[in-house]
């Protein structure tokens, strides 16, 4: 039998919730941990996070098609289990998953590149789940921006 040792107390609600803040897709880059917490605060009480290194890359420009399909399956589960009605897509400046794609670009060109990735991710989400609301955010290590394309 497994032995469980308390690492720290962490009381949490056992009540079922609706993901009123949506299914939020962001990069697992630890430099952005505080930014992700602040973005979550603005979106709603409950969110279903989908965190991978590269974040929106899984939807916009996946390395493997199976990455994209895995992401979609997670979105479908979020909708089924938590009534998710919106998706929050977060891109960030200086993302390591896009290092080769943005090499040699100016800051402005790199930001434009990420705007294109957000647009592709949004288009794909709406192609697969057309009734969802999609919100796009961009983080540059100083601010979190809403994005309208």
Q: Can you describe this structure?
A:
The chain is of the alpha/beta class and 149 residues long. The protein has one domain (22-147): Carbonic anhydrase (Beta-carbonic Anhydrase, Chain A, 3-Layer(aba) Sandwich). It is 40% helix and 20% strand. It contains five helices and five strands. The protein has helices spanning 33-43, 57-60, 65-82, 99-102, 107-128, and strands spanning 22-27, 47-52, 86-92, 133-139, 144-147. It has a five-stranded mixed beta sheet. A hairpin with a 4-residue loop joins β4 (133-139) and β5. The radius of gyration is 16 Å and the shape is globular.
Question: Any idea what the CATH superfamily is called?
Answer: Carbonic anhydrase
> What is the CATH architecture assignment?
3-Layer(aba) Sandwich
Gyration radius from CA atoms, angstroms: 16 Å
Could you report the average pLDDT, rounded to the nearest whole number? 94
CATH topology: Beta-carbonic Anhydrase, Chain A
Lateral strand order in the biggest sheet: 2-1-3-4-5
Could you give the count of β-strands? 5
Dominant shape: globular
What is the terminal separation in angstroms? 55 Å
Estimate percent helicity.
25-40%
- The helix/strand order is EHEHHEHHEE
> Which CATH C-level class is it?
Alpha Beta
H/I helix tally: 5
Structural class: alpha/beta
Question: How many separate domains?
Answer: 1
- Our estimate of the beta-strand percent is 15-25%
Q: Largest sheet at a glance?
A: 5 strands, mixed
Poorly predicted runs of 5 or more residues: none
């Amino acid at each position: 039998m497994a032995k469980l040792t308390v690492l720290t107390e962490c009381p949490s609600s056992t009540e079922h919730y609706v993901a009123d803040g949506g299914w939020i897709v962001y990069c697992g880059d630890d430099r952005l941990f505080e930014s992700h917490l602040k973005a979550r605060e603005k979106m709603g009480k409950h969110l279903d996070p989908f965190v991978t290194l590269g974040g929106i890359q899984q939807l916009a420009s996946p390395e493997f098609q199976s990455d994209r399909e895995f992401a979609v399956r997670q979105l479908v589960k979020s909708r089924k289990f938590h009534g998710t009605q919106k998706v929050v897509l977060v891109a960030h400046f200086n993302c390591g998953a896009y290092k080769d794609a943005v090499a040699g670009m100016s800051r402005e060109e790199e930001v434009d590149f990420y705007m294109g990735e957000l647009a592709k991710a949004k288009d794909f989400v709406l192609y697969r789940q057309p009734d969802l609301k999609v919100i796009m955010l961009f983080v540059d290590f100083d601010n979190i921006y809403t994005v309208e394309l």
